Amino acid sequence: MAENQISIALLGYGTVGSSVYQLLETKAQEISQATGASFAIKKILVRDVNLPRSGAPQEIFTENIEDILDDEAITLVVELIGGLEPAFDHVTSLLEKGKAVVTANKQLLSQQGAYLFRLAEEKGTRLKFEASVAGAIPVIKVLRESMVAAGLTGIFGIVNGTTNYILTEMSRTGARYEDALARAQEWGYAEADPTEDINGKDAAAKMAILASIAFHTPVTLSDVDCSGIETITALDIAYARELGFTVKLLGVARLYDDQINVRVYPALVADGHPVASVSGAYNAVFLTGSSIHEIMLSGPGAGGIETASAVVSDIVSIVTHPQTALSENPIPYRNLDLFPDEEVVSTFYLRLEVQDEPGVLAAVSQVFGQNGVSVESVIQKGRGAHAELVMIFHPVEEKRFMAALAELGQLPVVKGTPRPLRVEGKDHER
Amino acid sequence: MAENQISIALLGYGTVGSSVYQLLETKAQEISQATGASFAIKKILVRDVNLPRSGAPQEIFTENIEDILDDEAITLVVELIGGLEPAFDHVTSLLEKGKAVVTANKQLLSQQGAYLFRLAEEKGTRLKFEASVAGAIPVIKVLRESMVAAGLTGIFGIVNGTTNYILTEMSRTGARYEDALARAQEWGYAEADPTEDINGKDAAAKMAILASIAFHTPVTLSDVDCSGIETITALDIAYARELGFTVKLLGVARLYDDQINVRVYPALVADGHPVASVSGAYNAVFLTGSSIHEIMLSGPGAGGIETASAVVSDIVSIVTHPQTALSENPIPYRNLDLFPDEEVVSTFYLRLEVQDEPGVLAAVSQVFGQNGVSVESVIQKGRGAHAELVMIFHPVEEKRFMAALAELGQLPVVKGTPRPLRVEGKDHER
């Protein structure tokens, strides 16, 4: 095999950056034996070169992106800054110079992916991004390269480890949301500011990336409706368990003929479904398609070393698969419309606080019946002066269900704001 | 994108072959849009061209391999005959002519893989085999291309759907082995002659392939010790459940510095481990490594359409990634010795029938103690005149445990032949 020497630059040297550096050092021999190539990190962009750092030698750090842009020996750059700016500027300039870019930046890709892939293509280079979703789990490669004839129709993603950890804790211990969040922060599974995890935005960015690759159409963050786990109560989780479900924050992408629907929401997942057993800070991506039936990839979410492992896979892939006549960049070849949320047929779970008096169930049932919403099961629980109805419905167009819900809010016997959750995976069979 | 026309031949036209034909027809547009290439099946080798067949037109069938070998327009051949001969002869001849080969043949690869990969390399062509293990689950691609820096140390594989179905049925219903097997045959999850599934040979061939790719060393079928599920009783499964385990037929490949150990055996898998929740006719491959922590890929085993989907992925991969300076063939770059089974440190489960009299537990414990085998837990169950000891041990070198077992067989209070099972995944944490 020809020995191929590749000079690399890193943008950013945080947890992932230093892990990439370390991985390329410690695994140099294995990588070289497997690929015939060797890699040297020649420059690292940081904001302040004077901060003390371990790992890389002081002299390769720089504060100036031009040092990397103008170095013709550097043909491959790993962007680990995160966020839109200055990452977008830097990646644009790098691609314009014809340098290959590997990035872990979900914000960048979910907002500017299609533009950047076209730019890379125009300039005869590559933009790779395995590390942007689900850490070391090679879901991008699998979607890009192994699912061409899969006839993909759907994706379930547990793509945010923080929320899965919190929901697992709540389910395991009966803890309240606030306490489970505090525990997640204590154990390092949640940031000091976990807003983007909790409200589903982080998952939405990742689902935009997955959906665009799976369905070959541009999907951006703004196409993905999301709701988070802030309003999930210990009671919901307990009822879900009783009914044979586990609550998960799910990313759901579905193909409807020539339209797609991509959303993130907390859902009751049937316990027989593989996604229900993905616990703790784990991630999973569950694919369905006519030729594959279903495939699930799972593993820990994005720790430093796992993300670095994905980055190195991309580096290796760029070097071992040079750009060919056929595009290596995932440029969408079609432009699918969004399938409207209100036309999606969903199964709902609803916990309803009502006055504990005769005729309440009849009144509630009538509202649903009049809107064409059919109840599959209902459990009535006495809770002091109030009662609680825990209901599961037959699949129904979401607009019908939402109409019923609005009417329900008008009933004097109904207390508080009813918060439905969707149910997924009920019809799963092995 | 350049439109690239590829002429293909199939060897064999059974369930998988006809699914490949159908998939290339029905997904032609998607494949062409995604890859810029289009595929035409030009010839199909069968034993008797006169048998009625659906799908492909009569005139493309042939009984003569020379028709394919000598057709220079055919650059890619899919081997779906299975077994060693004549598949080995045909594949050798095809590679010698420089034609790329895609195969689903686990016997061929687990016995002649290293030779055939070298031959492909010499002739400047490719041999691909995603479909040989775990149907549509792209485990070969992931191992080959995404795990270069993973620091892989271990593989657990549930790579035989038949046995996983049988064990799941036994666990779910309490059925005896014979009844669960009959049910598997009735539902089409087991062949009329399921010998190779049941005795672990099928799984052993697949584990040889996985281990050789993961650890970059030749591993052949004869390197893989295997035991099957014939002797698993409903009682073992019930005790396992009681203790928090699920019985699985596991392929286990482990790297010990510069040695490897690859085996197939039924094991008690701790219920918290992801592999324990892989039920029914499903397959899963669970990878551990220093940089990935762990990753699991799971999905249905090898149905016709799933296997065909993997075949088409390989076809696409060959066309979109032409042979480069760096090898596309998984040629082992080292030659690791086998780590001796008796030095492996394992955790054992043992169900022991003993006479129900005072001092029996002491006698049994003494035998283990004298051999340096330490008991972690023991449950004593009265069963009529006899008692049963259900024991779990602390991890121990297998030779010590086997020595204790041999001595145990000499004790007059011990009835029958004690059959230990290994325990896996106990220390798994999420």
Question: Quick recap of the structure?
Answer:
Chain A has 14 helices and 18 strands. Chain A has helices spanning 15-26, 28-35, 65-69, 87-96, 106-122, 139-146, 161-173, 177-186, 195-198, 201-215, 234-243, 304-320, 360-370, 398-408; strands spanning 4-11, 37-45, 61-62, 74-79, 100-103, 127-128, 152-158, 225-226, 245-256, 259-270, 282-289, 293-300, 337-338, 345-355, 375-383, 386-393, 396-397, 414-424.
List keywords for this structure.
Rossmann fold; elongated; 6-stranded parallel beta sheet; 29% strand; 12-stranded mixed beta sheet; homodimer; 14 helices; 18 strands; Dihydrodipicolinate Reductase, domain 2; Alpha-Beta Plaits; 3 domains; 430 residues; alpha/beta
